[in-house]
Amino acid sequence: MLSAVESKLDTDQQTTYFRCIAGCSAKHSIYDVIYTCPSCGNLLEVHHEREPLKKRDANQWKQLFDSRASTSTWPYGSGVWGMREWVVPSLADENVVSMFEGNTNLFWAERLGQQLGVPDLWIKLCGNSHTGSFKDLGMTVLVSVVKQMMAQGSAVKAVACASTGDTSAALAAYAAYAGIPAVIFLPAGKVSTAQLIQPVANGAHVLALDTDFDGCMKIVQEVTKDNSIYLANSMNSLRIEGQKTVGIEIVRQFDWDVPDWIIIPVGNLGNISALHKGFQLMMDLGLITRMPRLVAAQTVRANPFYESFQNGFKEKVRVTAKDTLANAIRIGDPVSYEKAIKAIAATDGIVEQATENELAAAAAHADLTGMFTCPHTGVALAVLTKLIQRGVIKSSDKTVVISTAHGLKFTDFKVGYHESTLEEVTSQYANPAVHLPANADVVKAEIEKRLMH
Ligand SMILES: *Cc1c(COP(=O)(O)O)cnc(C)c1O
């Protein structure tokens, strides 16, 4: 006989499972070490059956989530686990690996919005998170599931990913918090100290290989084949479950009102797929009655999704991604392509792109209104500007820009901009420090000169 707790876990596992996005009929446990459909090789997604969730009505869900937000009760103080019934209901409390991520600020960008002609402009600051990017939202889920797998006797003994940036920082931090070994694969000599230092500090096994990112990806897939090391790269759809809470959180922060637009910088396309998944769930359960229009923002230097959108998604475009200031979205062959097409189609969405100069100018302009934007957020803000100029986003529209990382992770970008040393960028807002002698008269004269303008 199963105990009450065990049988509840059993039911939860039968109503939340992996299924193939192409429609193959098999259901797989989310505690299986599996990344793609065994029949057709397509991506998997975590599916939540709707009927059990409809036992609560829309208002009950809203009240429940409102009552948990930003409390300190384990694990509900996390923006992700405050919605646990919609994320991984079968996860036991003691296996949740959380540093109370999420619940990031959504603030009114009053001056920037006025200057751009969209007074109802809001910034969702996902970079105000533990490792400085929205990747924390997905990693808390992935590492928690791994912890539960290990507690149940799985052969998994470590987690791994190939990455040069925010993914490895988030994986290393959550693995260290849980006491699970993490292995990080990096292309030797191709990453900066800043990108290296987070996993190094968190005690991950950081392996620099004599190859590029794609070469690292091949090795990590080979190494994880025997299922003793769990793969945390983008094809792992558990991360989407955590990331989808951003959209739900935005609506909750607006007292369950849906904005007209959400703009997000995209690379592997997991984040926009996740936004859509969260909104779809809220629609299906009656919490909202319309979708926001989603905008995927890409850099011109890595724009396969933009090119695919241009051809009406008739065929998937792959490009060789070039060097860009927005290096977290330097991806030429995005993994979550099929899911992202659904996101654009279901929300009357748009894909737009920005040049290096446009992203740098948009970031610098936003900084002058009090922000400290990362280059990816610059891409989203540049795309916002274009859509306003084109009359697509109207002055009365409520628009949210998702800021995906903290600007302090990208100080080289800021320094380069204000020293006017960035390639392909004209630093129109450069504001370098001025060097003066320690003489009060000279200093006064300089201040007077400046404040007169
Ligand atoms: C990962 C990342 C993105 C892109 O997210 P995808 O899910 O790959 O589309 C954008 N901005 C930052 C800062 C990131 O770390």
Describe this structure in words.
By secondary structure, the chain is an alpha/beta fold. The chain has a domain at 106-132 and 239-418: Rossmann fold (3-Layer(aba) Sandwich), CATH 3.40.50. Helix content is 40%, strand content 13%. The protein is built from 18 helices and 12 strands. The chain has a 6-stranded mixed beta sheet, sandwiched between helices. Strands 7-6-5-8 form a 4-stranded parallel beta sheet, with helices on both faces. Helix 12 links the parallel strand 9 and strand 10 (293-299). Helix 6 packs parallel to helix 7 (166-178), helix 11 crosses helix 12 (270-284) and helix 15 crosses helix 16. The radius of gyration is 22 Å and the shape is globular. The termini are far apart. The model has no long low-confidence stretch (mean pLDDT 94). The protein binds pyridoxal-5'-phosphate. Pyridoxal-5'-phosphate binds at residues 133, 135, 165-166, 265-271, 328-329, 374, 376, 404-405.
